[in-house]
């Protein structure tokens, strides 16, 4: 009897020794609430169990409009997530604040990860002094969406055809916009991204033209808005709004997706809205300018927060989520920055709504594109710029003087 | 029982119990007020003291770096930052536009709707409905209605030959538009307060004045208006405080623009605290706003006391 008890106690003790490790949870914040996105993310979370059977990844949605604020409250309030998505324009601020962990050692130590597969331009925003603080999971170019029916009705060649012929430039863009506005009373030729070009999307509105004219916004602490190239680009937009009446003016709503404008600039994720639009459509590259082509990309990345309870585990999950296999899975929604995935035939056929020929333009734009300018003090710069741009978007404004005022307002922040 | 034991027993018998009726009542009173008091301390007094302490620091919410800077935030706001006085001016303009407009309209509606007539409940409901409508929905709908040429308001004006402005893109018109839409939204609340006050005035006073041959204007001016004074003071105080705290309308309709024309104090505090993460500076601005509103309230109370004296 005594021997039996001893044996039972020994077995019980041994069972504790060999029992599985304590279950761990990674809290991952995202700004998507889309069921298809979350389903895909959960499948990647589940696949992590193959190497980390005791780890559960929980994806927590915070709406995009509140994302940075709520994230900041969580970090400040002592309830930080372990890892999360990060906007491109917030990245420099977060790196400067020292609230992100460096990922380089973990990525370098992960078998078969191949960090070099991400191009240097794609990683520029996510690294500082050779230290990687984030990995882009979405590198989405801005493309010209067009309403093919409106072009056909006006007897005009659409942007895709013009691009194929090498005639899709800023002059042609102005010409067809004016023709479309004239042919459709009460409608416009072009709408800025999401109709927010005079408010939260100022940079999305002005930077593509400024770059193809050979200008920039700010670089190396110097403001570029008052340079002749930027003035020429913004002057063209100003004249299209107030002389030609071909761009939706400030204070009006001319939604492309409901057919009120013939063209708009947006990312390919917006193609998901097109099946409900009720008209034929297509996407084309952005028009070229005096300085040639200059595609613009928008990025979002993955980061680990320094206050995470499981920072090493979180970094391992980022390595898992951004390996070649999972980047290929995510490419159905989020265009990849990995060259090997971008070059694959699977990517060209990844989007059911966009034909392979048009996806080739997307791929080219990703390869050559640049992100919008970012800065550690982006919120302050944007707040300082806004009232000066308000003064610019008036019919009688002097564009050159208004842009000088923009530079004067932001110079101290640069 | 020895004499000493007897003395001790008597002393024990005459000792006053600790829990006297007075103490018991006081304890019960504290017990009754404690739910409110605890809530007041946790959710109002505590944060107020904390904001006061934060205002003396340069504290970045994101990096959590905090440095004691004394009154530097106040000095910067009051003497260095040019935006601060613009923001105070905008807040004052907003209050000066909103308070009289709101009170005049509320009193007019109350005078029209305080007496019973067929359909009075319907009209009261119509004018009160915006108060309980979602501020977000209200602002978005008005933003849509106030578009440039395509907006319903300008279409309506065009039908009678008036070329309306681009309401939310011109600084002066944007402030006017925000004030008017705010007044329409909130006037129902003050209307109800005035209706209650009007219904509390005995009809005898009015009838006596009528018998004395007073005109309708004289009855209003010399009888009703003075009797409404306490209500008017309360309405003026709460409307003024509310106008300085306005945030949602500005955030949703103009974002402080155009050209900072509607950048008011509450929105500026939000911008400093939650967009720039300068919690110390935002706290200093909040203290300044608290002092401004407190000063205005005290001035109104003093004026009221002088008026009644």
Question: What do these coordinates show?
Answer:
The complex is a heterodimer of chains A (414) and B (309). Chain A has 18 helices and 13 strands. Chain A is of the alpha/beta class and 414 residues long. Chain A folds into 2 domains: 17-140 and 298-371, D-Maltodextrin-Binding Protein, domain 2 (3-Layer(aba) Sandwich), CATH 3.40.190.10; 143-297 and 374-413, D-Maltodextrin-Binding Protein, domain 2 (3-Layer(aba) Sandwich). In chain A, strands 1, 2, 3, 6, 7, 10, 11, 12 and 13 form a 9-stranded mixed β-sheet that branches. In chain A, strands 4-5 form a two-stranded antiparallel sheet. In chain A, strand 4 and strand 5 (131-132) form a beta hairpin. In chain A, helix 10 (202-212) packs across helix 11 (228-242) and helix 17 packs antiparallel against helix 18. Chain B is an all-alpha fold and 309 residues long. Chain B contains 14 helices and 2 strands. Chain B has a two-stranded antiparallel sheet. In chain B, strand 1 (57-59) and strand 2 (66-68) form a beta hairpin. The radius of gyration of chain B is 28 Å and the shape is flat. The mean pLDDT of chain B is 90.
Topology, please?
The complex is a heterodimer of chains A (414) and B (309).
Chain A: H1 2-18, E1 24-30, H2 35-47, E2 55-61, H3 67-76, E3 83-87, H4 91-97, H5 104-109, H6 120-123, E4 127-128, E5 131-132, E6 135-147, H7 148-153, H8 159-164, H9 170-183, E7 188-191, H10 202-212, E8 218-219, E9 222-223, H11 228-242, E10 261-267, E11 281-284, E12 296-304, H12 311-321, H13 324-330, H14 339-342, H15 345-348, H16 356-368, E13 370-371, H17 378-392, H18 399-410
Helix pairs in contact in A: 10-11, 17-18
Chain B: H1 3-14, H2 21-54, E1 57-59, E2 66-68, H3 72-80, H4 82-113, H5 120-132, H6 135-145, H7 152-159, H8 171-200, H9 203-211, H10 216-227, H11 229-244, H12 248-253, H13 265-275, H14 279-308
Antiparallel strand pairs in B: 1-2
Helix pairs in contact in B: 2-14, 3-4, 4-8, 4-11, 5-8, 9-10, 11-14, 13-14
């Amino acid at each position: 009897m005594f021997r039996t008890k001893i044996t039972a106690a020994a077995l019980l003790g041994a069972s504790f020794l060999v029992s599985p490790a304590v279950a761990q949870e990674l809290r991952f914040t995202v700004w998507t609430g889309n069921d298809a996105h979350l389903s895909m993310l959960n499948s990647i979370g589940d696949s992590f169990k193959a190497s980390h059977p005791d780890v559960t990844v929980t994806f927590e949605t915070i709406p995009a409009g509140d994302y940075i604020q709520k994230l900041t409250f969580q970090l400040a309030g002592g309830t930080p997530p372990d890892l999360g998505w990060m906007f491109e324009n917030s990245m420099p601020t977060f790196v400067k604040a020292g609230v992100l962990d460096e990922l380089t050692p973990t990525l370098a130590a992960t078998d078969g990860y191949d960090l070099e597969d991400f191009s240097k331009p794609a990683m520029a925003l996510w690294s500082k002094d050779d230290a990687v603080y984030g990995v882009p999971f979405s590198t989405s170019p801005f493309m010209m969406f067009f309403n093919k029916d409106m072009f056909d009705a006006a007897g005009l060649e659409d942007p895709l055809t013009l691009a194929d012929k090498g005639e899709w430039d800023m002059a042609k863009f102005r010409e067809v916009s004016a023709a479309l506005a004239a042919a459709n009373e009460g409608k416009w030729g072009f709408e800025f991204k999401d109709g927010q070009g005079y408010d939260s999307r100022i940079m999305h509105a002005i930077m593509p033209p400024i770059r193809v004219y050979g200008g920039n916004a700010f670089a190396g602490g110097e403001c570029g808005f008052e340079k002749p190239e930027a003035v020429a680009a913004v002057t063209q937009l100003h004249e299209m709004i107030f002389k030609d009446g071909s761009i939706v003016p400030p204070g009006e709503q001319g939604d492309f997706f409901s057919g009120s404008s013939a063209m708009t600039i947006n990312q390919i994720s917006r193609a998901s809205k097109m099946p409900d639009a009720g008209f034929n459509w297509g996407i084309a590259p952005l028009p070229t300018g005096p300085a040639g082509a200059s595609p613009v990309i928008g990025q979002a990345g993955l980061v680990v927060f320094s206050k995470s309870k499981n920072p090493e585990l979180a970094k391992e999950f980022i390595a898992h989520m951004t390996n070649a296999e999972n980047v290929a899975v995510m490419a159905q929604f989020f265009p990849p920055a990995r060259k090997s995935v971008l070059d694959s035939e699977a990517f060209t056929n990844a989007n059911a709504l966009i034909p392979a020929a048009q996806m080739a333009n997307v791929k080219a734009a990703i390869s050559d594109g640049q992100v919008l300018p970012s800065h550690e003090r982006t919120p302050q710069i944007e707040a300082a710029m806004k009232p000066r741009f308000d003064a610019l978007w008036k019919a009688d404004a002097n564009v050159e003087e208004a842009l000088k005022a923009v530079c004067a307002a932001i110079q101290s922040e640069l | 029982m020895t004499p000493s034991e007897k003395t001790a027993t008597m002393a024990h018998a005459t000792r006053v119990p600790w829990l006297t009726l007075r103490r018991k009542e006081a304890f019960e009173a504290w017990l009754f007020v404690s739910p409110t008091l605890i809530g007041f301390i946790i959710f109002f007094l505590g944060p107020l003291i904390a904001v006061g302490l934060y205002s003396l620091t340069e504290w970045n919410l994101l990096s959590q770096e905090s440095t004691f800077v004394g009154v530097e935030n106040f000095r910067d706001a009051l003497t260095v930052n040019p935006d601060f006085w613009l923001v105070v001016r905008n807040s004052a303009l907003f209050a000066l536009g909103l308070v009289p407009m709101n009170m005049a309209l509320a009193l007019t509606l109350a005078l029209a709707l305080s007496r019973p007539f067929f359909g009075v409940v319907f009209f009261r409901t119509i004018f009160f409905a915006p108060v309980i409508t979602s501020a977000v929905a209200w602002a978005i709908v008005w933003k849509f209605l106030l578009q440039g040429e395509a907006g319903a308001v300008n279409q309506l004006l065009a039908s009678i030959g008036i070329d309306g402005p681009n309401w939310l893109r011109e600084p002066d018109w944007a402030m006017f538009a925000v004030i008017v839409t705010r007044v329409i939204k909130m006037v129902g609340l003050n209307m109800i307060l005035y209706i209650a006050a009007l219904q509390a005035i005995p009809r005898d006073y009015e009838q006596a004045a009528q018998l004395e041959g007073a005109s309708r204007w004289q009855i209003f001016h010399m009888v009703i208006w003075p009797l409404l004074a306490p209500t008017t003071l309360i309405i003026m105080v709460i409307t003024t405080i509310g106008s300085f705290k306005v945030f949602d309308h500005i955030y949703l309709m103009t974002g402080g623009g155009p050209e900072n024309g509607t950048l008011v104090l509450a929105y500026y505090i939000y911008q400093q605290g939650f967009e720039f993460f300068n919690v110390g500076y935002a706290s200093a601005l909040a203290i300044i706003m608290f002092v401004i509103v407190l000063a205005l309230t005290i001035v109104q109370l003093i004026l009221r006391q002088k008026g009644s004296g």
